[in-house]
Inverse folding.
């Protein structure tokens, strides 16, 4: 387990970038934490760390964004997923077989479906208004 | 009767053209490319290689499930699109039945089994007698344990042949006499199997229109459980 404190979006993005740099094909990253805690900024950094230069935005409405790369990145947002049928129809289980990196925001909603060996990243509000605590469990960084 | 058949229900994708119990052509791919990239070019190549015009295809067939959500949608959509444009009928084939037709032996039980993750499988069981398959159970999703219990009820003087991408998983888990695993080369679903079923269309399969062809998903036992772990604190 590794813990970070950050007090700006830039530093959250940098943590994401360093973390992204350690990811390899087949990794599943389950992100936990509510709105406005910097999850998407973290994923922006993560993509950059994987060598992906595309513009990364929140997939809340599209459910999943695909970014070509080596390995490719599949960025899910499970905010609106409420049932196994919902989850199945996102193609989530198919993406797990594609040998890319799968990153999942709002993992709280699909916790029972997460692969056992996934890397977990939790975002929490810190003591100050712009402070965030980020905990990473599993993977090389954990 | 000339059939164009597709299977893209799992990692592999294949396209076949079959006629009067003869396979004219089959293209098969097992890459990490998505089926949406490979399938239509295989259809085109199959038509080019056989010199067959799409307009001379009498029936369009696809495996309609169980299987991968996106894979099945891609195969079914491709078949629906072509059938609609050509104003020809469609046939949906059970993926599990397409697996079973690979195993035509004199006297055995064919147990088609596909891995559905988390110790769950999709399964249908067939009796094979004198080159004819008779369905013993409907397509269903169940736990590996339940399947093992069911197979124990079958008379063990008949060999059970496991086939499909869940066969290995079950073979290593099951305690039963007289259980075999299909050789690699005939273990998995392919468009040829879909095509052969379409030509014989084994009773249970009905010819339909492009409009009415739909994927058939099976609900997994895990779907009865909570997806969101209540009061679950991951980092405790």
């Amino acid at each position: 387990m590794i813990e970070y404190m950050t007090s700006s979006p830039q530093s959250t993005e940098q943590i994401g970038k360093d973390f992204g740099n350690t990811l390899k094909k087949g990794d599943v990253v389950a992100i936990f934490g509510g709105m406005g805690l910097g999850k998407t900024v973290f994923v922006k950094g993560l993509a950059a760390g994987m060598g992906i230069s595309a513009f990364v935005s929140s997939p809340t409405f599209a459910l999943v964004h695909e970014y070509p790369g080596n390995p490719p990145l599949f960025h899910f947002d499970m905010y609106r997923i409420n049932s196994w049928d919902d989850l199945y129809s996102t193609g989530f289980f198919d993406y797990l077989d594609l040998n890319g990196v799968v990153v999942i925001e709002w993992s709280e909603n699909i916790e029972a479906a997460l692969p056992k060996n996934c890397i977990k990243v939790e975002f929490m509000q810190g003591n100050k208004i712009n402070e965030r605590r980020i905990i990473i469990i599993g993977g090389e960084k954990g | 009767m000339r059939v164009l058949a597709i299977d893209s229900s799992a990692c592999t994708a294949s396209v076949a053209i079959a006629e009067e119990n003869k396979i004219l052509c089959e293209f098969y791919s097992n890459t990490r490319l998505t089926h949406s990239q490979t399938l239509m070019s295989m259809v085109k190549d199959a038509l080019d290689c056989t010199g067959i015009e799409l307009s001379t295809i009498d029936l369009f067939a696809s495996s309609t499930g169980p299987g991968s959500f996106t894979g099945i949608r891609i195969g079914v959509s491709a078949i629906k699109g072509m059938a609609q444009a050509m104003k020809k009928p469609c046939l949906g084939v059970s993926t599990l039945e397409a697996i079973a037709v690979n195993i035509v032996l004199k006297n055995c039980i064919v147990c088609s089994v596909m891995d559905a993750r988390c110790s769950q499988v999709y399964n249908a069981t067939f009796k094979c007698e004198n080159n004819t398959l008779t369905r013993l159970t409907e397509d269903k999703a169940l736990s590996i344990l339940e399947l093992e219990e069911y197979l124990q009820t079958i008379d063990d003087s008949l060999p059970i042949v496991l086939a499909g991408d869940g066969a290995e998983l079950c073979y290593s888990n099951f305690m039963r006499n007289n259980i075999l695993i299909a050789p690699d080369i005939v273990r998995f679903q392919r468009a040829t199997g879909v095509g052969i079923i379409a030509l014989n269309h084994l009773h249970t399969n009905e010819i339909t229109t492009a409009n009415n062809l739909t994927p058939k998903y099976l609900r997994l036992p895990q779907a009865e459980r909570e997806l969101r772990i209540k009061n679950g604190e991951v980092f405790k």
Chain A is about 25% helix and 25% strand.
